[in-house]
Amino acid sequence: MEIVVNEKQISADERAQVGRQVKAELIEHLYQGCLPGTICGVPVGIAIFVDFYKYTPTYPLIAWFVVYNLGLLALTTLFFAYTRYKTKISLDSWLLAYSINMSICAALWGVCVFLIPADNLLRQYFAFIALFLLTPGYATGTIGQFRLCVLTLSLIIVPLIVWNLTKGAFFYNLVGAFSTIYLIFLCGINRRSTQWFIDSLKLKLENTLVSYQANHDLLTDLPNQRLLPQYIESAINAVKDSEDTFAIVCFSLNRMEVINDSLGLQAGDAIIQSVTNRLNAFVAQMAKMKGERTRYIITLSRKDTFNIIVTPLNIDEAENKIRLLFSVLDEPFYLEKRGVKLTASLGVSIYRKDGEDIQALLIDADAAMLKAKQFGGNRLEFYRTEITAQLPKQLQLETDLHSALKNNEFEVYYQPLIDLKTNQISGMEALLRWKHPQQGFISPVNFIPLAEETGLIVPIGEWVLKEACAQTRIWHQMGFSSLKVAVNLAEKQLRQDNFVGTIDRILTMTDFSPRFLELEITETAILDETITNLLKEFKKRGLSLSVDDFGTGYSGLSYLKRFAIDKLKIDQSFIRDIPASSDSITIVSAIIAMAKELGVNVLAEGVETEEQLEFLRKKGCNYIQGYYFSKPVDVSGFTQLLLKSRETVSHPVAE
Questions:
Q1: Computed from CA positions of residues 31, 36, 37, 39, in that sequence, does the dihedral angle turn out positive or negative?
Q2: Which of 94, 151, 332, 540 has the fewest other C-beta atoms within 10 Å?
Q3: pLDDT tens string 96-143
């Protein structure tokens, strides 16, 4: 289908760029004719000089021959100068230099005609024809060059034929007049032909630009969704007659809406461009690896989502090849000297295994990516048929989530935090639970990301804060006056207008002291300058701050002192592998040692075995949280834990 130029699709800058490209292309063609034209001109000039020597006054002919060759030398010099310095001198200067030289050459050709004796018209025409044979060389820059040369020679020969038929001297003057008129006509034709070339090239470039814009993302310069089916079709053709397959990877960056909201759309665009550059570098690196046959084709389907074709693949190596894509996010991205750590959710569909239809493969990869987003972090999900079956349920879940808060379907559970010095419950973490009227308890893994995506996390989070403060106040009144409650804050909550005012209002409403409230935030949120100002306000009010899931993000240590962080919570993924993993042992030991040096308390999440407990106690960990002591329980269950802790403080509380 032909693409028609749409004026609105080409900006003034782009149109000026097209104009410069057209002029550069024209000049390139013009100068391409200089050297071959000069080479043709040398033997022609010599032949004319030798042939005319007997019939023409000697000194004018010699003068003509010297000037003629100087003109050829100037053209040759101009050609070599252009090939070497064409990018260092303006296009207008090169065009002017060409025009001057060609005008001089044209004048010299005209002079040559009048040097031939008037009584030798046949010889004059042969010379004229020889000179015009140079036209193909010098007219390379015009589209109609070949037709123009044929037309020129034909019109020159016609008067010669007439003269031979009539043998009348009258025709000599007529032919001379005709030659002069035709020379003017020839210049006009060349000018019109050149303008035709310019107009045609301009239209072609503009159409190419519009076509490129329609098929590529203008921010990243990557092919977009319009070209993706063609790439997939090519991948199918490449593997359909072999045992190989290929994968379509839906590579979606997490938390981009947070970056756009907090740092602005320009910062978000800069991140997307940086990720694109890293992906392109990764593709180039893989292509250079000796013996590596797998290639990665990058396209952009949405603002923060890439579709990547990985081909060819052996089904057994697919996961390893695809997991390599996470490496582009290993290093943080820097925006105005601030590090931002990104993660991605990857959904994968495999040709033949998950289907052979292009659209089906794309839908399956997208569905798998949405499943991966439910878990957060760098998560890879291969498509499974049950994922598609879950999509309608997911849509219904989103609908039900909107009414859950209004219908009082949420409940706060509490998991005890154990002080290893006293073996007593020193506090608890407030955890949101949703008891769906039809489906029963729904895992937070399934609905928390949905709440964050829809923005419902803001009113839900505010409700959790109020419930946790009010309930802890009740436990204080029961005699457990030292209990501190920890509440997770989502980044969207932190970016709400006057969130400090929201905290103040909840504390006043519940009559709760700020020194017993601990706010948990992710370490990536701390790196945001707008949030760091908020943290300072929290500290002014006497609130405690802890960093949740420490070690999984960009671990900048300077903020621990800068914002007077009270506690680090070591992510349970490190604790889970103790004592089996030496890497986890090294990481946890280093975090605890570092925290001691900085005077920051450490809490280990996910403690489930006595071996883990003893290791952490030996290393000097301050607090423990996990199923070894208790799973999260409701208000009644936690009250029983508190009452039981009064009776025995030396034994762990077991469920």
A1: positive
A2: 540
A3: 777 777 666 666 665 665 565 555 555 555 555 555 544 444 444 443
Contact indicator for 511, 545 with CB cutoff of 8 Å: no
- Nearest Cα neighbor of 317 from 240, 238, 243 is 243
pLDDT at residue number 485: 94
Q: What is the DSSP letter of 560?
A: H
Concatenating the DSSP letter of every residue in 360-372 gives HHHHHHHHHHHHH
Task: Tell which residue, 416, 425, 348, has the closest CA to residue 382.
Answer: 348
Instruction: Find out whether 524 and 495 touch, Cβ atoms under 8 Å.
Output: no
pLDDT tens by residue, 19-28: 666 667 667 7
Q: In what order do the strands lie in the sheet with 305-313?
A: 295-302, 305-313, 245-253, 344-350, 379-382
Q: Which helix H or strand E contains 256, and what residues bound it?
A: helix 256-263
Inter-residue contact 420 to 617 (CB < 8 Å): yes
φ/ψ of 335, rounded to 5, equals -120, 110
pTM: 0.52
pLDDT at 136: 42
pLDDT, position 7:
37
Q: Quick one: how far is CA 368 from the chain centroid?
A: 21
Cα–Cα distance for residue pair 143/197, rounded to 1 Å: 6
State the Cα–Cα distance between residues 58 and 318, nearest whole angstrom. Answer: 85
